[in-house]
Amino acid sequence: DDAWNNNGGYTPLFNLNPANNTFSAGPTQDSDSDDDDAFDFESIANLALATLDADYEATLRGTTHQPVEPDEDYGNIIADAYDHPINEEWTATFGDAAPTKKNIDMKSVKSAIATIQTKSNMTDKLKRWETFLKHDIIPKATLRAFRSASHLSRAATMADALVRLQIRPRVVHIVGVDQVECASVPRLRQLFDEFLQWHACQLHLVGRDLPTSMQHVYDGVQCHAGVYHEWLQSHDVPDVAIAFNAGIWGYAEWETTLRYLFATERRGQFPFVVTAYTLQEAQDDQEVIADVCGSETSERLLWAAQRNPFGSCQVRDLQQQASTKNYKENAAWQAW
Prior knowledge:
Distance between the termini: 43 Å
Radius of gyration: 25 Å
Number of helices: 12
Strand order of the largest sheet: 5-6-4-3-7-8-10-9
Largest sheet: 8 strands, mixed
Helix content: 25-40%
């Protein structure tokens, strides 16, 4: 495969400058074909791959160089192309140099498609990209605003969890809250009103050390003081529970709550979603939860620790802590 260089990467027909999304001439490749007019489909595939990568990264940075039209679903259009079989009778136009049947090397075309499918993670990237173009619950206007509005992370994470879990809950419990969520009614509205506009339900926020001054009640939202598993014993179970930035790996108090939630008699009562500041912390949380679940881990785990497409873009200010990591609210998540 001439397009796959000795360093394990692609040798594109052009070089991409990600700073300004421009191309310059790149190294040429020798062709095995005796026809000088034959197209180098490997290089064309590599160029397309580099362009998709650049567009994907630009999208995640919120700096796409072309706006998404409201009625166009580019993520599906591009992703669907991966599943279409190659038609040997296809025709294409490349300006004045339209390829003809005689100089189309179908072996090279198929090899180019295989290169994209097997030697890149572009398919996974496109799935994440598509999330920002269309969502079953989150309106398009909010999706476009999300990357610059960090306060939407909790609402969007909850909405995406409902889509992944395929549920429409009437009651949601938010576990392990503190002043970050419950400092005031305006703060609660800032974090959760968007979600309640998308999906009407009851929200119960439960925090161990929540003072009386923060036990607010309004429009279907209630804040409660108490350890979750103790509080739950006198309340109805929810349709789903979520713990934002829980730090399960770092707080021993979580173990008792986890053992209560995952006890055999409560198996499958409701899913439990957990977010973390980093992927590493999410993986650490998963190890702790797996220890509690024991042999039932594979049965309990709905999705393993992974990056959350709706994690906050804002890096937390941790100047007082000696850390080189970028901590972002809800950066990673998992579900049990």
